[in-house]
Amino acid sequence: MTTKVTKEEALEYHRVPNPGKVAIATTTRLETQRDLSLAYSPGVAFPCEEIEKNPQLAYEFTAKRNLVAVISNGTAVLGLGDIGALASKPVMEGKAVLFKKFAAVDAFDIEVDEKDIDKFCAVVKAISPTFGGINLEDIKAPECFEIERRLVEELEIPVMHDDQHGTAIITTAALMNACEMMDKKIEDMKVVVVGAGAAAIACSIMYKELGIKNLIMCDSKGVIHKGRTDLNKYKKEFITSTDAVSMEDAFKDADMFLGLSKPGTFTVEHIKLMSEEPIVFTLANPTPELFPEEVKSVRPKAIVGTGRSDFPNQVNNVLGFPFIFRGALDVQARKINMHMKMAAAKAIANLAKEPLSPDLVASFGNLIYGREYIIPIPFDKRLMVEVSSAVANGAIETGVARVKEFNLETYRTKLALMV
């Protein structure tokens, strides 16, 4: 399967039939004078008064219950870097499209021209009453950590920086299946992470939650070890407890590698140092640090994943974020916690083991759970049921849901009907 496109095709796609990728559609009838009186004055005053008395009723009388804000300041857009808020708009519109198409979640893209942490958080907090959830996107590290931390603490709606947690959830799902396939014990794994940005740190936190004990992180200056004096507080959390100080030390007998850096940060010579059957995720996009064929030229039994759709095992955040927010919104969660993220990862991992539906087989071939297929494809509609229900149930279990009466099987049936 190939998804290569030309610049001309991409520009035309964004220009025709109308500029951009999103629009607003109404959900109620507005055909008569009576409809007008209900939709606006005088009828609209009644739900306003009810919400003033009980703010929780906003979830009953407004679109808040199914509305997410996709918010960026454009400081870390794709592999393009700090291109500014306005130039990030096509990406944010695209994220809104994915929310709608994959999980029936409405989303507004909001580009905030502000790099100051205090001011950015103030803007998001000020507009938060409109939304049921906040998806932060393409905000550079380390600012993104503080921005998310503050908003999670200060807002009563779920906030998630998808660049961090989306990648962490999907790679955790892939890691669980790869370990099972290779009969490796999570707690015995030696993991190397090259890259120390938002996604790399979030992945590392989740791997430790999963049970990884021996994790070595490398940034652009090499291994993060106790002899370094140039580390920020986020990197200091990942100072290795081993004696590794060089990339060669790090890769020696490693069981798993995660690349969230750029091409050229390591070579096949480093892969040669790994175990005979390593797990290798080279996720730099659009050009991975190493291509799958390069990895397999020295480690033919490796399980390899990339961020690209034209190779097996694509680590694509769309496997997670639409359905994570779907589940969080439906139980009116106050936040998305680690229990909910881990539930999402397990649901994604388990779905890969299920046979594909006939329509997917017709489009993608008969993909069977194995080394070339350890995570589902984004167009598997069962993701809506499995991931959303796991997240919603996780919110109920951890007490962060406002909805009190919840039946898991009834909710799964509702999701299946939506699909």
Which helices and strands occur, and which strands form pairs?
Elements: H1 7-15, H2 33-39, H3 45-53, H4 58-61, E1 67-72, H5 89-103, E2 106-111, H6 117-127, E3 133-136, H7 143-154, E4 159-161, H8 162-182, E5 190-194, H9 198-210, E6 214-219, E7 222-223, H10 233-236, H11 247-251, E8 256-259, H12 268-272, E9 279-282, H13 292-298, E10 303-306, H14 321-330, H15 338-351, H16 358-364, H17 382-397, H18 408-418
Parallel strand pairs: 1-2, 1-3, 3-4, 5-6, 5-8, 8-9, 9-10
Antiparallel strand pairs: 6-7
Helix pairs in contact: 5-14, 6-7, 8-9, 8-15, 14-17, 15-17, 17-18
Can you describe this structure?
With 419 residues, the chain is α/β, with parallel strands linked by helices. It folds into three domains: 151 residues, 3-Layer(aba) Sandwich (Rossmann fold); 141 residues, Rossmann fold; 88 residues, no CATH class. It is 43% helix and 11% strand. It is built from 18 helices and ten strands. The strands form two sheets. The chain has a six-stranded mixed β-sheet, with helices on both faces. Helix 9 links the parallel strand 5 and strand 6. 43% of the residues are buried.
